[in-house]
User: What shape does this take?
Amino acid sequence: MRQRTSVDIRELSFEKFVAFLFARDVPNESFESLHERRETAKWDQWYWHFDITFDARRVCGYYVNLFDAPRFLLESYSKAQLEQGFWAIQGSNLDCSAFHIIWDRDLPFPIREQCVKSMVILFKGLFAIEPLVDAVSMWWDSLCYDWHCGNRKRSRGGEDRAMQDVMFETLVDILELESPTCQGAALHGLSHLHHPDTGDAIRLYLARNPHLSGDWKSTALAAAEFKLM
Assistant: This one.
C-alpha cells in the first residue's frame, strides 16, 4: 500500500496551484486505454494518497479564476494530464477538490455559488473545445449524484435546496451551448440532480433543437425522468 503524503498548499500562488493539480506524471500507455484501466484494480491516482492542508477561501477563488479563463491549460498540459487533473477536481478523493469546496459551510454561500456558476465558462471555454475522455461527461455525475441517491434532498431546504437551484441554473446554461459534449454532460447532470423544473427545461431544449437524432431525443427524455445513468 502506498504511504500517504502530507502537503501544505496554503501559500501556493495560483500558477503553482494549477501545476499541483495538472503537472503530474501520467501512466506510460496509450491515452485511449485510460478509461479501460480506470475500471480495473490497476487504476491508482496521485490524489488518493495526499492529506492536504489548505485555505478553502483561497482555493475557491483559484477555482473561479481557473474556470473563468481555462484556455491556457490546452497549451500547458497534455490531454492525459488534463483528464487526470479534472477527475481530481470533481471528485471526493482530493481534500481541496471543488467537490468539497462547494459544500464547505465555513465559506459564505455566495462565494461557493460563484464557483459553481463559473463552471459554465469552463465548459464553454475549454470542454467544448477539448472533451477529454470521460472527465467531462462525468463532471456533473460527480457533483449531482448526492441528490440521485438521496444523500441530499430538496425537501430538507437549506443548502440542499439552495445549491440544487444553483446547479440547475448552471446546467441549463450549459445545455444551451452548441457543443454536443457539453449538452450531453448537462443532461447527465440534470438526470441526477432531480430538480423539479427539469422536465420543463428539457422540453424547452427539445423545442429549440428540433433536428436532434432519435437517440439524442431519447437521451434527453430519459434525463427528464431522472433515468439517465
Observations:
- DSSP finds 13 helices and two strands in the chain.
